[in-house]
Design a protein that fits this description.
The chain has helices spanning 9-15, 28-33, 47-59, 62-73, 77-87, 103-113, 125-138, 157-166, 174-178, 198-211, 233-240, 251-262, 268-276, 279-282, 284-295, 299-318, 332-348, and strands at 6-7, 20-24, 40-41, 93-97, 119-122, 145-150, 171-172, 216-220, 225-226, 229-230, 243-248, 325-328. By secondary structure, it is an alpha/beta fold. The chain has 2 domains: 6-134, Rhodanese-like domain (Oxidized Rhodanese, domain 1, 3-Layer(aba) Sandwich), CATH 3.40.250.10; 142-348, 3-Layer(aba) Sandwich (Rossmann fold). The strands form 3 sheets. Strands 1-5-4-2-3 form a 5-stranded parallel sheet. A 5-stranded parallel sheet has the order 7-8-6-11-12, sandwiched between helices. Strands 9-10 form a two-stranded antiparallel sheet. The longest helix has 20 residues, at 299-318. It is globular, with a radius of gyration of 24 Å.
C-alpha cells in the first residue's frame, strides 16, 4: 500500500476493527450522532469551526473556505499530531475517516504524516460505512436466529441476559444500545440516553453481530420502539419468528427487583416526572395517590401499584399466547441457568 492509498471499508472489516487504530476526524456532534465502532474522535474542526467554514464555503467560495480551514487548524496542529501519536503506541495500522472520505480525512492524514506516522483513509468515509450497515440490516443474514425472552416488568430479564453475555453466550442487548430500560421510566439512570440516535442504535446492533461468532442470539422480547429509537423492521421481524421464552416470577420478587433497579431514593424527581407523563393513561387521582407514596418513601407500594395496575395489563397484550418455553425462577441465578439451558439446547439442534 502506498502512503496515499485509500483503504476499502471491506479491508478494514476483514482485518478486524479491534486490530486497527481507527480515528474519526469529524466534529464532535457528527461523531456522537454515529461513528464506526471502536473509533476515537480527534476532530480536525470542532462544531463551531466547522460551521464557520461551511458558511464561508457557501457565501464566499471553496478556495476561501479552505484557506479559513488552514487558519483555524494551524495553531492546533502540534496537539492534533500528539493526539494521533498517543494512540499509535502499538503495531496496529492507523486509519482516519471523515464524512465521505474527502478533504478532512485526507488533510488529517497528510498533516500527521509530517510527524512520520503512517496514516491511511477509508474510501467513502463514514457515508460508505453507513451504507454498509443499512444494507446489512435490510438484508439480514438468513442464518441469524433469536431466542426472545419475555416477561412482566421487574422479572430481571435484562440482568439475566447481561449475566449470560458475561458467561459467553451471544446476546443482542437492545436496551443497552438504546440507553433505555424499555418502560415509561426507562431513561432514569441512563446517562447515555441523550446521545442515542437511530443511526448509532443501528450501528450497535450491527456491531453485536459483527463481533460475536455464532448464529443464535438471545434478546429481550421488546416492543418495536425503545425510548426514542425503533428496532429496524428486518431485525424485529426475525426476532418475532424466533423461539419464545416467558418468565414466570412472583410479584414479591418483581417488586424487590424493580425498587433496587430504579433506585427511587436517588431518582425520586425523575420518577415523579415520568409519572406525570402517564396522566392521560391513569388519571389525575391515581397520579396524586402514587405521588403521595413517593413523598412518604413507600416505594414498595408505589411499585406494586404500578406493576399490577399499569404494566401487567400492557404486558398481557404483548406476550405470546403459546410460548415455546415458560421458566419459573425466584433469583437471577436460577433464571440464568434455565435460560442458558434452552440456549444450549437450541444451538445444538
Amino acid at each position: 500500500m502506498s502512503l496515499n492509498e485509500e483503504l476499502e471499508l471491506s479491508y478494514i472489516l476483514d482485518k478486524g476493527l479491534e486490530n486497527i487504530n481507527l480515528v474519526d476526524v469529524r466534529s464532535p456532534s457528527e461523531y456522537v450522532e454515529d461513528h464506526i465502532p471502536t473509533a476515537v474522535n480527534i476532530p480536525l474542526l470542532d462544531d463551531e469551526e466547522r460551521k464557520q467554514v461551511g458558511i464561508c464555503y457557501k457565501q464566499v467560495g471553496p478556495k476561501e473556505a479552505r484557506v479559513l480551514g488552514v487558519d483555524i487548524v494551524s495553531p492546533k496542529l502540534p496537539q492534533f499530531i500528539r493526539d494521533f501519536l498517543e494512540i499509535k503506541q502499538n503495531n496496529k495500522i492507523t486509519v482516519a475517516y471523515c464524512w465521505r472520505g474527502g478533504l478532512r480525512s485526507n488533510s488529517a492524514a497528510g498533516l500527521v504524516r509530517i510527524a512520520g506516522v503512517q496514516v491511511y483513509t477509508i474510501k467513502g468515509g463514514w457515508k460508505e460505512y453507513r451504507r454498509y450497515v443499512a444494507d446489512f440490516i435490510e438484508n439480514l443474514p438468513l442464518e441469524l436466529n433469536f431466542i426472545n425472552f419475555y416477561g412482566p416488568t421487574g422479572c430481571a430479564k435484562t440482568e439475566i441476559l447481561r449475566k449470560l453475555h458475561k458467561d459467553g453466550l451471544n446476546v443482542l442487548d437492545l436496551e443497552m444500545a438504546a440507553a433505555h430500560k424499555g418502560s415509561s421510566f426507562g431513561r432514569i439512570d441512563e446517562p447515555e440516553y441523550k446521545n442515542v440516535t437511530q443511526k448509532n442504535f443501528e450501528s450497535k446492533i450491527w456491531h453485536t453481530f459483527y463481533r460475536n461468532e455464532g448464529e443464535l442470539f438471545l434478546c429481550e422480547g421488546e416492543s418495536k420502539k425503545i425510548g426514542k429509537v425503533s428496532i429496524p423492521n428486518p431485525v424485529y421481524e426475525r426476532m418475532n419468528s424466533g423461539v419464545s421464552v416467558v418468565a414466570d416470577t412472583s410479584l414479591d420478587f418483581r417488586i424487590a427487583f424493580t425498587v433496587e433497579n430504579y433506585k427511587p431514593d436517588r431518582y425520586i424527581e425523575e420518577i415523579r416526572g415520568s409519572l406525570l407523563r402517564l396522566k392521560r393513561f391513569i388519571g389525575s387521582a391515581k397520579i396524586a395517590e402514587l405521588s403521595a407514596m413517593l413523598d412518604r418513601g413507600d416505594y414498595e407500594s408505589f411499585t406494586r401499584d404500578m406493576l399490577v395496575e399499569y404494566y401487567d395489563p400492557l404486558y398481557m397484550r404483548s406476550t405470546p399466547e403459546k410460548p415455546d418455553y415458560v421458566i419459573k425462577y425466584e433469583s437471577i441465578e436460577e433464571g440464568s441457568e434455565k435460560l442458558a439451558q434452552i440456549y444450549k439446547n437450541s444451538a445444538a439442534s
